[in-house]
Design brief:
With 511 residues, the chain is an alpha/beta fold. Helices cover 43% and strands 12% of the residues. Strand 2, helix 4 and strand 3 form a beta-alpha-beta unit. Helix 2 packs antiparallel against helix 3, helix 7 runs antiparallel to helix 18 and helix 10 packs across helix 15. The protein is globular and about 95 Å long. Bound molecules: glutamine. The site of glutamine has 14 residues, from strand 4.
Length: 511
């Protein structure tokens, strides 16, 4: 089917050339034919989407429709939608359904967006390949032997495969921008506090941001416009006015000042990605941009700092999954049987009629966990996948009393230094440019046994989350291996307009 931007779809509907119901049906057909191989959606609700289409079409015709009429969206499976599953692609949330809408969902509904399903992801948004999902790996629509990137791989792939015209993902260390790069779509991580986190299931609360994926910069701006803004239900939401992003990019400014950080064009960067980005920058310069070499000296610590702090926060956030309150619970009868069997074994070892043996037996029995503690442990053991367990252990370790100062407290200090690097840079430049990721999408399975290699794929993205600033990835070229890749623009806090503007220039230049 052809690719419709949100505004094109709406225009065609208004002109009577396309029925919204038909558009939804076309997406349903795409999902039905491609999802078996791509695995981008983990649950769909086609009938509801078709019902919504009918109502919204009427509103378009009578002129009362919201700004997202014509948008058909997929939502990452960690953002609460009332009466829909929200599993974070984890066994531990198996069967869990939200009882309320996240603020972003409320806002999108108000603007007449249609929701078509829940998108796949790495379990609890931890990963860079979307292979850590209870639903199985997502495949890159450009080459199904490659990863789509992660953790919002399903959201990126759904747009790339044209199964909908936009999606929401979340970005804690790059999970919107990196999959956008791998899948050849636009993805934006807003400033921390720009978009409400109310209804977003937490991974690392001081990093997590909800943001859009779309086919183009304008749709990205349109969805951001709808979800941005202050929310009193989120304590970290910022009460800062929201720009008119959509208008701002209609005639993008060309005389922008772009910071080029030497640290982001060093070892490990694919040479074709580097040369393409440098060519595009030269072209922007010709058209009126000013390129300024800058330095972000602490960025070499960003991946390690990120993995200390994000795992620390995750270990605390994930403590709530105890098998009692949400989702999955280990079988209680088995737990009790096991406890009884262990008790029995201990009793059989001792002759309780002899005082010293009876004492030993009592001491050993006292060390047995209660049935409740066992139920917690077994539920968590069975419910969490290995990567999530690795993060919980790492996070618990860096927070433990003997290591807190050496790791957690130290990482907090480095986070501040990284923030200050950016603050200084943004005194002189409008945006900072970098590759989004050092490579194009790699083979499925190729980094599964080497977590450090996988973590290093986040080398250009984590610093934005550490600093709380905004970033966008926009497709910039196709590699000789046939795969797309993106260019990243970072902007100071609440400067989404500037990164959208820069991304729009690249989009115009590369089309
Ligand atoms: N790849 C990073 C990680 O695994 C980022 C994840 C994210 O942004 N949610 O933690």
């Amino acid at each position: 089917m052809s690719i419709y931007s949100i505004s094109e779809a709406r225009q065609k509907i208004q002109d009577g050339e396309l029925a919204l119901k038909d558009l939804v049906n076309q997406y349903i057909t795409e999902i039905n034919s491609q999802n078996g191989s791509i695995n981008a959606f983990v649950s769909t609700y086609h009938n509801e989407a078709l019902e919504q289409a009918e109502e919204i079409e009427k509103k378009i015709k009578n002129g009362t429709a919201g700004s997202l009429a014509g948008a058909v969206l997929g939502i990452k499976d960690l953002i609460a939608e009332r009466d829909k599953q929200a599993t974070c692609a984890s066994e531990i949330l198996d069967g869990f359904e939200s009882v309320y809408d996240a603020t972003v969902i409320e806002k999108l509904k108000k603007e007449d967006a249609i929701f078509i399903g829940r998108t796949n992801m790495d379990e609890f948004a931890m990963g860079s390949t979307n292979e850590f999902s209870k639903y199985g790996a997502v495949k890159n629509p450009h080459d199904t032997t490659k990863v789509p990137g992660g953790s919002s791989g399903g959201s990126a792939a759904a747009v790339a495969a044209n199964m909908c015209n936009a999606t929401l993902g979340s970005d804690t260390g790059g999970s919107i921008r990196q999959p956008a790069s791998f899948c050849g779509v636009v993805g934006l991580k807003p400033t921390y506090g720009r978009v409400s986190r109310y209804g977003l299931i937490a991974f690392a609360s001081s990093f997590d941001c909800i943001g859009p994926f779309a086919h183009n910069v304008e749709d990205t701006a349109r969805v951001l416009q709808a979800i941005a803004g202050f929310d009193e239900r989120d304590n970290t939401s910022a009460n800062v006015p929201v720009d008119d992003y959509v208008s701002a990019i209609q005639e993008p400014k060309k005389d922008i000042v772009i910071g080029v950080p030497e640290e982001y064009f060093g070892d490990g960067l694919d040479s074709e990605i580097e040369s393409t980005i440098r060519e595009q920058l030269a072209q922007l310069e010709k058209e009126g941009a000013t390129l300024v070499p800058i330095s972000l000296p602490h960025s070499k610590y960003s991946v390690s700092t990120y993995y200390v702090l994000a795992t620390a926060e995750a270990s605390s956030n994930l403590a709530r999954y105890d098998g009692i309150r949400f989702g999955y619970r280990a079988d209680k009868a088995t737990v009790i049987d096991e406890l009884k069997a262990e008790e029995k074994e201990i009793r059989s070892k001792y002759d309780a009629s002899k005082a010293d043996e009876a004492d030993k037996m009592e001491a050993e029995l006292a060390r047995l966990d209660s049935a409740l503690i066992r139920l917690y442990k077994k539920s968590r053991t069975e419910g969490f996948g290995n990567e999530v367990k690795r993060r919980i252990m790492l996070g618990t370790y860096v927070l433990s009393s003997g290591y807190y100062d050496a790791y957690y407290a130290k990482a907090q200090k480095v986070r501040r230094l990284i923030q200050e690097d950016f603050k200084k840079a943004f005194e002189k430049v409008d945006v900072i440019v970098s590759p989004t990721a050092p490579t194009t999408a790699f083979d499925l399975g190729s980094k599964l046994n080497d977590p450090v290699q996988m973590y290093l794929n986040d080398i250009y993205t984590t610093s934005a989350n550490l600093a709380g600033i905004c970033g966008i990835s926009v497709p910039v070229g196709t590699h000789s291996n046939g795969l797309p890749f993106g260019i990243q623009f970072l902007g100071d806090t609440f400067q989404e307009t500037k990164i959208l503007n820069a991304a729009r220039l690249i989009e115009l230049q590369t089309k």
